[in-house]
Design a protein that fits this description.
The chain is an alpha+beta fold. Helix content is about 25%, strand content about 40%. It has a domain of about 100 residues: Double Stranded RNA Binding Domain (2-Layer Sandwich), CATH 3.30.160. A 6-stranded antiparallel sheet has the order 1-2-6-5-4-3, with helices on one face.
Length: about 140
């Protein structure tokens, strides 16, 4: 008879608990933020271009950023981004969408961010998400 089998059996609950804990900690996704700011970056997207970066008192107040990612449903993808923004203290103006595009404006005191999700009809894996953050007083400047 194998004498190590009872020893393994007694360790099984601890082993199982350790695996569950490691999976829960290892699989949780920390929210990502754009340029060390309070602007949530889209999960599973690669930043392709970022320009017009401006900070005021350490706070990001202006930026244009484009991310490349796969988008099958722009409204659903923007819904996930909307939850990330609102949990970071941004107010949502609500999502507007067509079949291939979804747009939402988010505001915080002194700032406004337009997020646009565009599905590439020919290849959804080549879709894009763009952010345009401006100071609130410049929001009407374009």
């Amino acid at each position: 008879m194998n004498r190590t089998f009872p020893r393994i059996r007694s360790l099984r609950p601890r082993l199982l608990a350790s695996l569950v804990f490691a999976a829960a900690v290892g699989c949780s996704t920390e929210p990502r933020y754009l340029l060390d700011s309070d602007v949530p970056a889209p999960a599973d997207a690669l930043a392709r271009a970022t320009s017009d970066v401006e900070r005021k008192s350490g706070e990001l107040v202006r930026v244009k950023s484009v991310f490349a990612t796969k988008v099958d449903d722009p409204s659903r993808r923007l819904g996930v981004i909307e939850r990330a923004f609102t949990s970071s203290g941004w107010a949502s103006a609500g999502v507007t969408a067509t079949g291939s595009t979804a747009v939402c404006f988010f505001t915080k005191p002194g700032r406004r961010c337009q997020v646009r999700v565009v599905r590439n009809e020919l290849d959804p894996a080549m879709s894009r998400i763009s952010y345009h953050l401006v100071p609130s007083d410049a929001a009407t400047d374009g």
